[in-house]
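Backbone shape codes:
***
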Amino acid sequence: MTNGVPVKPGLIIPFSELEFVTSRSAGPGGQNVNKLETRVEVRFNVHRSRILMEQERALILEKLANRIDRNGVLRVVSQESRSQWKNKQTALDRLAKLVRRALQPSKRRKPTGIPPAVRRKRLDSKRKRSEVKRLRRPPAD
């Protein structure tokens, strides 16, 4: 097992920078729900992280702004499983996926033009419509 969460080659978030909080899960599960703390919340402080370069930090803060609180903490929660261990793994996978996507450069939009055939078709239909309307007019004296 690694000593952190692998995000991409050359970037592993160490467990020392993660905080795990467990609580009772919601939903079905019988006595399991009432007794055990299977819900797992993983917290990653983006502002204080020592492993992120400034440009990576800025990308994460920009792209995940709606998921990061004002203190710079990214929270990921998992409570699908009845097992705390599985929920912990799921939460870590989600965290890695979120950070990986945030660090991927977004593709530049390539502007597309209107194809000549489409432009020609549009102008032809406008001409036909104009002709129909012209023929509906009363004759000029």
Summary: The chain has a mean pLDDT of 89. The CA atoms of residues 30 and 82 lie 10 Å apart. The first strand starts at residue 4 and ends at 8.
